[in-house]
Specification:
This protein has 278 residues and is mainly β. Strands 4, 8, 9, 11, 14, 15 and 16 form a seven-stranded antiparallel β-sheet that branches. It has two domains: 164 residues, no CATH class; 80 residues, Immunoglobulin-like, CATH 2.60.40.
């Protein structure tokens, strides 16, 4: 089952010399200022006889480009080296991140904040819940959804001039005999009203316009930790995490002339700057 949603997208971007800092004000489960899209994904298998190996996948398009950004996966198996079930989510697009840690996708309660300072992952472990016996013969049980199967998954989507924050409504339950996954839908900011002009000292970008390389430099007492480069159509060109440095040299390579956008994490501030390659 494929599930699509179309978000407003502006192909024409006006060049703005200001920088912006994103301070998300989204709360898990809240719909104020949000655009909700129903997905109605439901998978349930209540028996797991020997010889079973079932894997179900359902996609969601968050960016509105007609391609899958997330894939929800349910697995139920009873084969010689695996007995049990797992549910999880895979990222298919570099423009989308989810809140996760080393133990899997984070489960948020209603009202929990979804902010730029959260624990965001491009390629998370992705599991909601799992309960199985594998090659070791020892039970493996875990995931943030395992003990409390209903919650919200925090998401953010990188668009050309905005970063949208939102949540996905998830219910999942697994044991060695059954698997259950229900995704009601997701909500994203419909109007980003949490954009405020940033201090020009947060991030220096020079030269601008540029014929070759562009240097990004933090003037604050905090290093650059993440950087993303977008073209004028909103296509994500580069994604760098874990920088931990005060400056970053952005090589032009063979990129054509035009307007580009960078989005840089400086401490807890997410700063966006536009520039021109001549």
């Amino acid at each position: 089952m494929k599930n699509k949603t179309i978000l407003p997208f502006f192909a024409t971007i006006l060049f703005v010399s200001l920088s912006f800092s994103i301070v998300a004000q989204v709360q898990a489960g809240a719909l104020t200022g949000m655009e909700y899209t129903s997905l109605a994904i439901f998978r349930q298998e209540l028996s797991n006889p020997f010889g079973t190996f079932l894997q179900f996948e359902d996609d969601a398009d968050l960016t509105g480009n007609g391609e899958a950004d997330l894939t929800f996966v349910s697995t139920l198996a009873n084969v010689p080296d695996f007995v049990g079930a797992m549910t999880g989510v895979d990222l298919k697009s570099a423009a989308v991140q989810v809140m996760a840690d080393q133990d899997g996708a984070l489960r948020l309660e209603g009202g929990d904040p979804i902010t730029a300072a959260g624990d965001w992952q491009d390629v998370p472990p992705g599991l909601f819940a799992f309960d199985f016996i594998g090659l070791t013969g020892q039970p493996q049980v875990g995931g943030h959804w395992y003990d409390n199967s209903s919650g919200y998954l925090g998401i953010r989507v990188f668009m050309p001039t905005d970063t949208l924050y939102g949540w996905i409504d998830v219910t999942t339950a697994v044991n060695q005999q059954s698997v259950y996954l229900k995704i009601d839908g997701f909500a994203l900011e419909s109007v980003v009203n949490s954009v405020e002009e940033a201090e020009e000292t947060d991030l220096r970008l020079f030269p601008n316009p540029a014929a070759g390389s562009v240097r990004l430099e933090s003037s604050a007492d905090k290093p650059l930790s993440k950087m993303r480069l977008f073209d004028q159509h909103g296509k994500l060109l580069i994604a760098c995490d874990g920088l931990a440095q005060k400056s970053y040299l952005l090589e032009r390579q063979d990129r054509p002339s035009g307007i580009y956008w960078v989005e840089v994490q400086v401490g807890e501030r997410l700063v966006r700057r536009s520039f021109i390659w001549l």
